[in-house]
């Protein structure tokens, strides 16, 4: 277990918390720009309306708040009792009136931030169970929330794109996605951003090279777009599954 007062850990956690709070503001701005009628329109997620995306992000805040409660009290409190419970929570949120849905989202975000602020430093290293069933230190859930906010703000399909995400979020997201591919034995490609000093993502000796701007690569790898990305294998393929 890491030392709870390690300066590097504290600094890294504060930076990620800041990125999460900026993501909350960004998502909120995108939501505020939607009319009530537009909430019923299509998101970028197949089969989901914008209001379903908002309900999901609100539900996610409550789920991560339950993990913060677990770390704080020591009593196991899972994100969701089951996948069915998760889905039911999203459905219940999505059928709220537009005003109630906006309020639900704002309240869930504020409640999570209050829980984070109230946590003692030594609680952030307490192991909790993530959505995939793995035990991770609570501090990892900050990034879980951060990526939800930034990516789903784009999924609201109201003009925001991956180009609007901070560089540090894009770099971390790409590293995570390529790492997930590698963990499944999928190491056949190397991703190189044309506008970044980062040396690249994936095996340098991979059979295929995929290039594009940092934002375009992240959008492609996350399964949101294919434009702006080129592959030395010819036509740019659909990115492998991530989560």
Written description of the protein model:
Keywords: Isomerase. InterPro entries: DinB/YfiT-like, Maleyloyr_isom, MDMPI_C-term_domain, MDMPI_metal-binding, SCP2_sterol-bd_dom_sf. Strand 1 and strand 2 form a beta hairpin. The mean pLDDT is 94. The protein folds into two domains: 7-160, Up-down Bundle (Four Helix Bundle (Hemerythrin (Met), subunit A)); 167-231, Nonspecific Lipid-transfer Protein, Chain A (2-Layer Sandwich), CATH 3.30.1050.20. The chain is globular, with a radius of gyration of 19 Å. With 243 residues, the chain is mainly alpha-helical. Helix 3 crosses helix 4 (83-94) and helix 7 packs across helix 8 (214-221). The strands form two sheets. Strands 3-4-5 form a three-stranded mixed sheet. 53% of the residues lie in helices and 7% in strands. The protein has helices at 7-32, 36-39, 50-73, 83-94, 98-118, 140-155, 167-183, 214-221, and strands at 127-129, 135-137, 189-193, 208-212, 230-231.
């Amino acid at each position: 277990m890491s030392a709870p007062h390690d300066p590097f850990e504290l600094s890294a956690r504060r930076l990620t918390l800041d990125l999460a709070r900026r993501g909350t503001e960004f998502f909120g701005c995108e939501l505020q720009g939607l009319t009530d009628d537009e909430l019923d329109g299509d998101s970028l997620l197949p089969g989901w309306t914008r209001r379903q995306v908002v309900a999901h992000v609100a539900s996610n805040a409550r789920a991560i708040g339950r993990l913060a409660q677990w770390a704080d009290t020591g009593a196991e409190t899972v994100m969701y009792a089951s996948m069915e419970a998760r889905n039911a929570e999203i459905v219940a949120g999505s059928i709220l009136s537009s005003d109630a849905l906006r309020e639900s989202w704002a309240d869930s975000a504020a409640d999570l931030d209050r829980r984070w602020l109230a946590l003692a430093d030594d609680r952030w290293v307490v192991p909790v169970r993530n959505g995939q069933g793995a035990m991770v230190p609570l501090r990892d859930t900050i990034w879980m929330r951060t990526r939800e906010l930034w990516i789903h703000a784009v999924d609201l399909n109201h003009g925001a794109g991956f180009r609007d995400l901070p560089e540090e979020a894009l770099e971390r997201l790409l590293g995570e996605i390529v790492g997930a591919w590698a963990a499944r034995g999928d190491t056949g490609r190397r991703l190189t951003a044309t506008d970044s000093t980062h040396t690249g993502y994936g095996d340098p000796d991979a059979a295929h090279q995929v290039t594009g701007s940092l934002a375009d690569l992240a959008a492609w790898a996350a399964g949101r777009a294919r434009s702006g990305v080129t592959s030395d294998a010819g036509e740019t393929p659909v990115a492998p599954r991530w989560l």
